[in-house]
Amino acid sequence: MKLSGSAKMLRIHFGEDAKWKDKPLYRAIVEKCRELDIAGATVFRGIEGYGASTLIHRSHLLSFSSDAPIMVSVIDSEGKVEKLIPYLDEMVDQGLIAMSEVEVIKYVHQGGTHVL
Amino acid sequence: MLKAGPAKKVSIYVGEDHQYHGHSLYAAILDFLFYRGISGANVVRGVAGFGADHHMHTMRIERLTENLPMKIEFVESPEKVEELLPKLYEMAGTGMIEIQDTTVVKPSEVSKKRAPQPTTPPLRREGKAKLMRIFIGENDKWNDKPLHRALVESMRANDIAGVTVYQGILGYGANRRIHKEGTLHLSHDRPIMLSVVDNEEKLRAFSPILDAMVQQGLVVLSDVDIIKYTHNYQEEERRKEAQP
Lengths: 116, 244
Hints:
The complex is a heterodimer of chains A (116) and B (244). Chain A has a single domain, classed as Alpha-Beta Plaits, CATH 3.30.70. Chain A contains two helices and eight strands. With 116 residues, chain A is α+β, with helices and mostly antiparallel strands. Helices cover 22% and strands 41% of the residues of chain A. In chain A, helix 1 packs antiparallel against helix 2. The radius of gyration of chain A is 15 Å and the shape is globular. Chain B is of the alpha+beta class. Chain B has two domains: 104 residues, Alpha-Beta Plaits, CATH 3.30.70; 100 residues, 2-Layer Sandwich (Alpha-Beta Plaits). Chain B has five helices and 15 strands. A five-stranded antiparallel β-sheet of chain B has the order 13-12-14-9-15. A four-stranded antiparallel β-sheet of chain B has the order 4-7-1-8, covered by helices on one side. In chain B, helix 3 runs antiparallel to helix 4. At the A-B interface, helix 1, strand 4 and strand 8 of A face strand 9, strand 12, helix 4 and strand 15 of B.
């Protein structure tokens, strides 16, 4: 896989509780990215936040239930990212999707053992 | 700041358990007053009471959780009260709001000790800069130490303005391998992102070092506007003095 020069970064914000077909939405998005051969995706869990619903998202101390804010960051060429957007549109029913310009400085891996 | 003279005293009565957007209501009201610049407010918890629903709220021992009455009180100028009232009305929900005319005889003063002192002008930069994001794995090593730590140390040594390390919970990258947290957080192969901000020349100058350190991963650059980058030198001096 090659990625260089100017690219797009998508950031998708939603709550950890969000589901897609009974699985966590963030996992579903990462799987969809892999399916579409997107260069990479990373999921981050925030500590606190609020969004369109103005409901405070916060991970609850001493409890396993949690609705922390989640941010998925996806980087690839404009064409690839645009292919992903219709799926995201369908999957994310509450949240925010933002796109920005990035310049790829480096995208490398050590070939061999881990390549699937 | 509140001055001596006629003013309004506002009391808002709510229940301790009342919620406002997933947050305790009295705390939300107090926050609202705080960030809207009210000179002072108090929350008082009642030991017993009842309201419009004629349900007796008490602090009886056999019931540990009880929706005790809470009273939020503040004194402000009539104009300020007028300005805040619509939002308070919305927030209070089923609770009651009462306003009394009052007279401020002596306004409270900011204690001398905590009054803001003139500080030496802090380092401040504004304008265009670059944000560099480095995506690596938690397991990545550099000279036997975690790569993300090595990168931070190396940036500090190279006078890069600032860096923050974020830990992801799930992800994959160039090698198609899924990085995720294991059960009970025992496995440590989570995705790591470092976000670095400085001007373009500094980041370009750091590139060769970065190149040598990052064996696998993704590095991207984007434009950012610096809104604020300050540092309180006085605070640092004080901290240094406190250290033996």
